[in-house]
């Protein structure tokens, strides 16, 4: 039987690190192909997919700053890193025959289009994956904030944050075996318990606009599809 999607439009956030696979740096094309397969499954059941990709596999402004670089310059480099990841993701998606549009918050004429919300909405309705690059376009923000911002702007039903673990835990499950996974959390619980799922800017934006966030494990094959058809995966913050 065909699964009937619960969500019509989602904003998926992939961290840059997710693209590294087992590597220490950069992009693993095998990982991209697997992501393309997972995303293609959503398109296949008629779900509209907006994508925000991080840049942490290449550069992070805060890390460059800690090593002595000017923070704003570092953040600019971080945003350019998200652009490279976006191009790589588009390549993988298009090789899987999924029409993909890349839009950047920072104009980069000749390579990608400048972000245009109405254009993005038209493309999403046409069944194209739309990748939003360069974060918010501003230093001192993160791509988590960009994901929440774009998710709200395109009126997504949910922001899906892909991670390496199965959801939000009371402690780091890799280091602490007694850590328990939360099925649901409120935005205020995330803030009060200092759960560090996303930065405060991102969580507060979602809280203020009532945008639900689901944190899930993208390494689990089929998890993304299970979520959009309404199965419990990961942790829901709302
Ligand atoms: N960044 C920025 N403004 C934004 C989004 C990102 O300056 O709106 C920069 C920032 O330096 C950040 C880097 O881009 O460290 C990469 O993004 P992020 O750390 O969010 O990537 P992820 O952790 O998801 O891989």
From TrEMBL:
<feature type="binding site">
    <location>
        <position position="172"/>
    </location>
    <ligand>
        <name>ATP</name>
    </ligand>
</feature>
<keyword id="KW-0808">Transferase</keyword>
<feature type="binding site">
    <location>
        <position position="56"/>
    </location>
    <ligand>
        <name>ATP</name>
    </ligand>
</feature>
<keyword id="KW-0547">Nucleotide-binding</keyword>
<dbReference type="GO" id="GO:0005524">
    <property type="term" value="F:ATP binding"/>
</dbReference>
<feature type="binding site">
    <location>
        <position position="55"/>
    </location>
    <ligand>
        <name>UMP</name>
    </ligand>
</feature>
<feature type="domain" description="Aspartate/glutamate/uridylate kinase">
    <location>
        <begin position="8"/>
        <end position="217"/>
    </location>
</feature>
<keyword id="KW-0418">Kinase</keyword>
<comment type="function">
    <text>Catalyzes the reversible phosphorylation of UMP to UDP.</text>
</comment>
<comment type="subunit">
    <text>Homohexamer.</text>
</comment>
<dbReference type="GO" id="GO:0044210">
    <property type="term" value="P:'de novo' CTP biosynthetic process"/>
</dbReference>
<keyword id="KW-0067">ATP-binding</keyword>
<dbReference type="InterPro" id="IPR036393">
    <property type="entry name" value="AceGlu_kinase-like_sf"/>
</dbReference>
<feature type="binding site">
    <location>
        <position position="75"/>
    </location>
    <ligand>
        <name>UMP</name>
    </ligand>
</feature>
<keyword id="KW-0963">Cytoplasm</keyword>
<dbReference type="InterPro" id="IPR011817">
    <property type="entry name" value="Uridylate_kinase"/>
</dbReference>
<dbReference type="Pfam" id="PF00696">
    <property type="entry name" value="AA_kinase"/>
</dbReference>
<feature type="binding site">
    <location>
        <position position="163"/>
    </location>
    <ligand>
        <name>ATP</name>
    </ligand>
</feature>
<feature type="binding site">
    <location>
        <position position="60"/>
    </location>
    <ligand>
        <name>ATP</name>
    </ligand>
</feature>
<feature type="binding site">
    <location>
        <begin position="13"/>
        <end position="16"/>
    </location>
    <ligand>
        <name>ATP</name>
    </ligand>
</feature>
<dbReference type="GO" id="GO:0006225">
    <property type="term" value="P:UDP biosynthetic process"/>
</dbReference>
<feature type="binding site">
    <location>
        <position position="169"/>
    </location>
    <ligand>
        <name>ATP</name>
    </ligand>
</feature>
<dbReference type="GO" id="GO:0033862">
    <property type="term" value="F:UMP kinase activity"/>
</dbReference>
<dbReference type="GO" id="GO:0005829">
    <property type="term" value="C:cytosol"/>
</dbReference>
<comment type="similarity">
    <text>Belongs to the UMP kinase family.</text>
</comment>
<keyword id="KW-0665">Pyrimidine biosynthesis</keyword>
<comment type="pathway">
    <text>Pyrimidine metabolism; CTP biosynthesis via de novo pathway; UDP from UMP (UMPK route): step 1/1.</text>
</comment>
<dbReference type="InterPro" id="IPR015963">
    <property type="entry name" value="Uridylate_kinase_bac"/>
</dbReference>
<protein>
    <recommendedName>
        <fullName>Uridylate kinase</fullName>
        <ecNumber>2.7.4.22</ecNumber>
    </recommendedName>
</protein>
<feature type="binding site">
    <location>
        <begin position="136"/>
        <end position="143"/>
    </location>
    <ligand>
        <name>UMP</name>
    </ligand>
</feature>
<dbReference type="InterPro" id="IPR001048">
    <property type="entry name" value="Asp/Glu/Uridylate_kinase"/>
</dbReference>
């Amino acid at each position: 039987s065909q699964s009937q999607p619960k969500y019509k439009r989602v904003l998926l956030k992939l961290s840059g690190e997710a693209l590294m696979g087992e590597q220490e740096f950069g992009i693993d094309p095998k990982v991209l192909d697997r992501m393309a397969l997972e995303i293609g499954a959503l398109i296949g059941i008629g779900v509209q997919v907006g994508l925000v990709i991080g840049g942490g596999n290449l550069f992070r402004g805060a890390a460059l700053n800690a090593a002595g670089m000017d923070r704003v310059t570092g953040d600019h480099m971080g945003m350019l890193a998200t652009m490279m990841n976006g191009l790589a993701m588009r390549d993988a998606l298009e090789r899987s025959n999924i029409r993909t549009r890349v839009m950047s918050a920072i104009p980069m004429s000749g390579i990608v289009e400048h972000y245009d919300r109405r254009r993005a909405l038209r493309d999403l309705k046409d069944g194209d994956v739309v990748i939003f690059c360069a974060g918010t376009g501003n230093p001192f923000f993160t791509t988590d904030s960009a994901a929440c911002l774009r998710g709200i702007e395109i009126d997504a039903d949910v922001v899906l944050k892909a991670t390496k673990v199965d959801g939000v835990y009371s402690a780091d499950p890799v280091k602490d075996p007694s850590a328990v996974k939360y099925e649901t959390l409120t935005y205020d619980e995330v803030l009060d318990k200092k759960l560090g799922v996303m930065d405060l800017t991102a969580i507060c934006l979602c809280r203020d606009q009532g945008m639900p966030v689901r944190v899930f494990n993208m390494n689990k094959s089929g998890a993304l599809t299970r979520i959009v058809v309404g199965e419990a995966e990961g942790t829901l913050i709302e």
